[in-house]
Amino acid sequence: MDQKAVFSTVSSDFEAVNSTIHRYLASDVPMVEKVAEYIIDSGGKRMRPLLVLLAGQLNGQLTDRHHLLAAIIEFLHTATLLHDDVVDKSDMRRGRATANANWGNAPSVLVGDFLYARSFEMLVELGNFDVMQSLSQATRVIAEGEVMQLMNVKNPDITEAQYMEVIKGKTAILFKASAETSGLISGYDRTSVNALADYGLNLGLAFQLIDDALDYAGDAEALGKNIGDDLAEGKPTLPLIFAMEKGTDEEKALVRNCIRKGGLVELDAVLEVIRHTDAIGYVTQKALTHADAAKQALASFADSDSKRALMALADLAVSRQS
């Protein structure tokens, strides 16, 4: 099942989610709508709303409450993107100029704040305390993950375990919450909700691992961003951590120095070290392990189009090129 087939499983509900998103973007302040619509309509994969819909359809029919939950989660995710691009000083995302590149840092941060506030208004409307608890905790963990990543910038001594903790916080936790909260509003039993949470967490880890691998092995045009952006910012992601562990003393010193300085002056040399140590192969295998764990978490659910789509989604998280 390819990505198009996965989305087609819930295509009509996806249209309802998009309508919900645009309805709740309404604001009396024109710039709020303009900036928010720009980033939301910028061609994102909508992976987290997709998780809400597919998980909700495993054991029943989707309702307006699933559409509202999917929109809430997309707002939370978009808010983090607006803030991340300011923190990272990014000027390109998904092949387009970032909001901060177009309007400046202040509007981007404030519109991100608006989206957070709107999402919590929508949560109140949804009226499910367990969902509120899950998403409020996830929002806090995301912020902690981003702070941890910021503290790790230009630090070549970060371990693989520390790196995994960062990507769990900044990425995987919202995947987990997307699947988990869908199970909660669907009325699934606790075992099924926990299984969905496990699925989402492992899917998110696999997704971020491949994202970090593609920063050194992807195609800039397909990715919609520049190759080596993480190196330019001095971010010690797993390809670099593994390359330092397996490289020669000279290669290790090169990568360490590049992380400390940031920039792309030595990008070609770093790419050669990554190739020589097969760091991308290692990261990909780790992503496959998490994708397999995600699929295993779905074992208790009956076969259905939605289950097959979720299984395919785990495979696509690893095989994607952008």
UniProtKB/TrEMBL annotation:
<comment type="similarity">
    <text>Belongs to the FPP/GGPP synthase family.</text>
</comment>
<comment type="function">
    <text>Supplies octaprenyl diphosphate, the precursor for the side chain of the isoprenoid quinones ubiquinone and menaquinone.</text>
</comment>
<keyword id="KW-0479">Metal-binding</keyword>
<keyword id="KW-0460">Magnesium</keyword>
<dbReference type="Pfam" id="PF00348">
    <property type="entry name" value="polyprenyl_synt"/>
</dbReference>
<dbReference type="InterPro" id="IPR033749">
    <property type="entry name" value="Polyprenyl_synt_CS"/>
</dbReference>
<dbReference type="GO" id="GO:0046872">
    <property type="term" value="F:metal ion binding"/>
</dbReference>
<dbReference type="GO" id="GO:0008299">
    <property type="term" value="P:isoprenoid biosynthetic process"/>
</dbReference>
<dbReference type="GO" id="GO:0106350">
    <property type="term" value="F:all-trans-octaprenyl-diphosphate synthase activity"/>
</dbReference>
<protein>
    <recommendedName>
        <fullName>Octaprenyl diphosphate synthase</fullName>
        <ecNumber>2.5.1.90</ecNumber>
    </recommendedName>
</protein>
<dbReference type="InterPro" id="IPR000092">
    <property type="entry name" value="Polyprenyl_synt"/>
</dbReference>
<dbReference type="InterPro" id="IPR008949">
    <property type="entry name" value="Isoprenoid_synthase_dom_sf"/>
</dbReference>
<keyword id="KW-0808">Transferase</keyword>
